[in-house]
C-alpha cells in the first residue's frame, strides 16, 4: 500500500463506510457482541511531502469524564495509540506512514485500537454511543 487512495480502496472493500470526504473516511468496526465502534481515518501530510494515516476513535465526551482516570487507564492497559481531545471528544489515536505500509501494519493496529476504545467507552461512558 503506497498512497491514501490505495488505502481508501482497501477500506471500502473491508469495512462499513459511514462517511467519506477527500481526506477522511469514517467507518464502523463491528464486534461479535453486537457492539460497534466509530473510527475516523484521515490523511495527514507530514512536512508537506509524506502521507500518513491517522486512526482515531471517540469513546467519551471530554466534559463528562475524569480525564485523570482516563489517562491512568490508558497508561496501564493500552499498547496502541495515545489519548487526545478532538473537539468535544476524548479519543484514542494512532498514526502510520503510508509510503511502505503493509496491510497487516494497518489492519492489526486498527483492530487493536477499536477493541481498546470500545472497552474504554464501556468503562467511562457506560454504553455504546460511538
UniProtKB/TrEMBL annotation:
It comes from the Bacteria. This is YbjN domain-containing protein. It comes from Kutzneria viridogrisea.
Amino acid at each position: 500500500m503506497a498512497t491514501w487512495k490505495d488505502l481508501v480502496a482497501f477500506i471500502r472493500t473491508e469495512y462499513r463506510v459511514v462517511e467519506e470526504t477527500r481526506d477522511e473516511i469514517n467507518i464502523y468496526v463491528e464486534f461479535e457482541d453486537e457492539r460497534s465502534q466509530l473510527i475516523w481515518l484521515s490523511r495527514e501530510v507530514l512536512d508537506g511531502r509524506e502521507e500518513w494515516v491517522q486512526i482515531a476513535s471517540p469513546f467519551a465526551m471530554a466534559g463528562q469524564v475524569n480525564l485523570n482516570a482516563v489517562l491512568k487507564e490508558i497508561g496501564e492497559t493500552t499498547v496502541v495509540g495515545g489519548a487526545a481531545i478532538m473537539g468535544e471528544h476524548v479519543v484514542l489515536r494512532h498514526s502510520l506512514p503510508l509510503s511502505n505500509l503493509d496491510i497487516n501494519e494497518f489492519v492489526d493496529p486498527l483492530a487493536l485500537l477499536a477493541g481498546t476504545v470500545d472497552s474504554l467507552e464501556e468503562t467511562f461512558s457506560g454504553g455504546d454511543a460511538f
